[in-house]
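Late entry, evening session. Most of the bench is empty. Finally got around to the prediction I had been postponing all week. Sequence below, unchanged from the version circulated by S.P.
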Amino acid sequence: MHRSVPTALFAVLALAVGTLPLHAQDEKPVQIALFNPIQIYDAETSISGIRWNIIWGKNANVAGIDFGLINEATGNVLGLQWGLVNNVGGDVTGWQQSVVNLTRGLVQGVQVGLYSQSAGTEGVMWSGVNNTRSMRGLQVALVNIADEMHGVQVGLVNIIRSKDRFPVLPIVNWKFDD
């Protein structure tokens, strides 16, 4: 039974790496970083495969599995991002989970953390505090803040800044018109 767990993890990793597009010249399949700039490839390189950031890793884009203490991408992330802090300069498509999620672009998928902030989200945000410019989907947190909302917020304090009537509500807040 103990051998099945590593086998399953290897199968998921092989599937994730095998389904990624062919690598361009500036993309590499594996990155290991102690902290930036002590990493296999420099920060301008994109990673399509797996990135392990022992302390802090920084790359242009990441597609695949991204995990470590501090995960930074100056561009976009596609896939699974898991760590203590996720900091993305572009968009995230997939699952982003950490204590703190900072995304300057659109999150499409799931964002879970104690604090999550993004420019826009389509999917689910679930954390202690969610703060987003544009949200399409579900926010779940103690405090939810959205400038623009098309969906539902569930939490202790829910704020939809673009809502004319009752922009702040406890427990549940919603807005569905564009």
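Two things to note before I forget:
The mean pLDDT is 88.
Residues 91-178 form one domain.
Will write this up properly tomorrow.
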